[in-house]
Here is the input.
Amino acid sequence: MVIAVLLGCMQFSGRSSPQIVALPMTNDLQSLIHALRDFAQAREWEQFHSPKNLAAALSVEAAELLEHFQWLTEAQSRELSSDKTAEVGAEAADVLLYLLQLTDKLGIDLIAAARAKMLVNSQKYPVKRL
Here is the structure.
């Protein structure tokens, strides 16, 4: 008996290895990428948006995101105030926007790359059945 399960782009059937099913990037993600291109172009910032600079900016924004959790206990990190949650959301958005710009500059389909990474992780860390 063959059981097929589709998880995003990963298709599992029977005992065979999972296979990647190519799905296009979502329209929302594409529209964000186009808006970021337009934003940078209107300000003539493209000259500064090399992959190296975008990766550095991404790292800085990730550190700013982490800063909101510095010195919090595990429990406190799960119970943020609404103001703090909004601040964390803004930093998370900065991380996403720089990541989208970086992958756009490098011609990486971020959704396909994430799905491929999930496939690698599923093979590296299989579900253990008792």
Summary: The longest strand covers residues 4-7. Residues 3 and 15 are 9 Å apart (CA to CA).
